[in-house]
């Protein structure tokens, strides 16, 4: 299926009849707060599974970020799929475990890290979506999400995110070519900051 930019394809609280695999583009995940505001809980891109760990209803909403293509699989057909492709069962278990690990990492991000560590963590997280990232060399990142989404995801204000990115630029840790393109000039040091070691 193809989803246009800004269109939702998973509604929080809706019956979790299907799970999805992102095959192209990017997606933002969010939950709705009681007052109607949205909290960004993550970003997904090619190869990521969504809704795999859902039981009866989705615990989050999902929306295309600049357009996305996905494969949708009904949970009811899972048994037939794993019988036909035995190696798939192992992969699905790995993905469900990864979903839980990401949630635990997010709790640490919001609960224990400083603002500087949060922004560094976000940049390193984006590296993990690249094919074989080498943190000993400069890494180019494409950030299609607006700064407001990044700030929301990190539990910070947009001003704080901008201030920290400017500080990283001043320290020659990053270069900013445009609002959507950042080069990590010293990714190993950014990783050290993310881990709270600096």
TrEMBL record:
<keyword id="KW-0805">Transcription regulation</keyword>
<dbReference type="InterPro" id="IPR018490">
    <property type="entry name" value="cNMP-bd_dom_sf"/>
</dbReference>
<keyword id="KW-0804">Transcription</keyword>
<dbReference type="InterPro" id="IPR000595">
    <property type="entry name" value="cNMP-bd_dom"/>
</dbReference>
<dbReference type="InterPro" id="IPR036388">
    <property type="entry name" value="WH-like_DNA-bd_sf"/>
</dbReference>
<dbReference type="Pfam" id="PF13545">
    <property type="entry name" value="HTH_Crp_2"/>
</dbReference>
<dbReference type="Pfam" id="PF00027">
    <property type="entry name" value="cNMP_binding"/>
</dbReference>
<feature type="domain" description="HTH crp-type">
    <location>
        <begin position="113"/>
        <end position="188"/>
    </location>
</feature>
<protein>
    <submittedName>
        <fullName>Transcriptional regulator</fullName>
    </submittedName>
</protein>
<dbReference type="InterPro" id="IPR036390">
    <property type="entry name" value="WH_DNA-bd_sf"/>
</dbReference>
<dbReference type="InterPro" id="IPR012318">
    <property type="entry name" value="HTH_CRP"/>
</dbReference>
<feature type="domain" description="Cyclic nucleotide-binding">
    <location>
        <begin position="1"/>
        <end position="54"/>
    </location>
</feature>
<dbReference type="InterPro" id="IPR050397">
    <property type="entry name" value="Env_Response_Regulators"/>
</dbReference>
<dbReference type="InterPro" id="IPR014710">
    <property type="entry name" value="RmlC-like_jellyroll"/>
</dbReference>
<keyword id="KW-0238">DNA-binding</keyword>
């Amino acid at each position: 299926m193809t989803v246009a930019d800004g269109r939702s394809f998973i509604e929080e609280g809706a019956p979790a009849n299907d799970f999805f695999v992102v095959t192209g583009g990017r997606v933002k995940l969010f939950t709705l707060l009681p007052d109607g505001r949205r909290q960004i809980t993550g970003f997904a891109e090619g190869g990521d599974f969504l809704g795999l760990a859902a039981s009866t209803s989705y615990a989050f909403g999902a929306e295309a970020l600049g357009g996305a293509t996905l494969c949708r699989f009904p949970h009811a057909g899972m048994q037939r799929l794993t019988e036909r492709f035995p190696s798939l069962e192992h992969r699905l278990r790995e993905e469900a475990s990864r979903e839980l690990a990401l949630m635990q990492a997010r709790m640490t991000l919001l609960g224990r890290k400083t603002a500087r560590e949060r922004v560094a963590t976000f940049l390193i997280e984006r590296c993990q979506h690249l094919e074989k990232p080498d943190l000993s060399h400069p890494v180019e990142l494409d950030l299609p999400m607006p700064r407001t989404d990044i700030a929301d995801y990190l539990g910070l204000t947009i001003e704080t995110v901008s201030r920290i990115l400017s500080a990283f630029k001043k320290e020659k840790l990053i270069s900013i070519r445009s609002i959507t393109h950042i080069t990590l000039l010293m990714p190993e040091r950014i990783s050290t900051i993310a881990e709270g070691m600096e």
